[in-house]
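User: My instructor asked us to take a sequence, write out its structure as tokens, and then describe one feature of it. I'm not sure where to start. Here is the sequence I was given:
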Amino acid sequence: MARLDGKRALVTGGSRGIGAAICRYLAAEGAHVGINYVASADRAEALATEINTAHGQKVAFAVQADIQQETAIQAMVADVVERFGGIDILINNAGYESTVSAVDLSIDEWDRAVNTNLRGAFLCAQAAARAMIKQGTGGVIINNSSIHDAIPRMGLAHYCASKGGLEMLMKTLALEWAEFNIRVLNVSPGAIETEMNRDEIAAFGRERFESWIPSGRIGNVDEVAGLFAYLCSPEAAYINGTTIYIDGAYMINVVRYDPRKGAS
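Assistant: Let's start with the prediction itself. The structure tokens for your sequence are:
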């Protein structure tokens, strides 16, 4: 018996990258999965077909919604509940990032980051929690955050602010919803290679980038997805209201001078 047998999940931004890997891992562990997308219907449908071929024809389906829109979120969660008979897992994976100097940052760009990464995550969590409370069965809500919830980076004022806000949102929701047996967590990845950033990593210089990471390499999506699957499982039932960092110790490698080098 797989550890997520019978669980019903929704993964926002689930059609590619880390989100797609999470969908695959949850399905492999026995969960039914709603794959949220905004515009890439073909990609989401292809992933659903892949999962259904591997695990059964009613395991996964694609569901469109812009998580900046409250009514769209409510309809999406209602769709998952109707199709699966309830919802036990929400993965807030959808996110937005751009690099803009703070003095040049438009309010529209600020709003897009905050509305996706923070407001959207809250609205999805709220809608899912309402369904979980009505069911009376509890559940787990996990936000895909970033090491930039704690580590600033130039050009990412809007992104870092949204992820920092997501940290306190997670902790507050964990406090409020513990009585309903709903766990709320953040997973904060460091440098993770996906199809979206592969060219950027190559242009910057993989060796140079990896030299900054104590573990000596960039992470991969399967490592992150495996962590999400574990945190959704009964084995993680006592993990609540906290952030798990998965970054190869990248965020603690700030001072690069090593006085031991060259020592006799």
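For the description part of your assignment, you could build on this observation: The two ends are 57 Å apart (CA to CA). Try explaining in your own words what that tells you about the chain.
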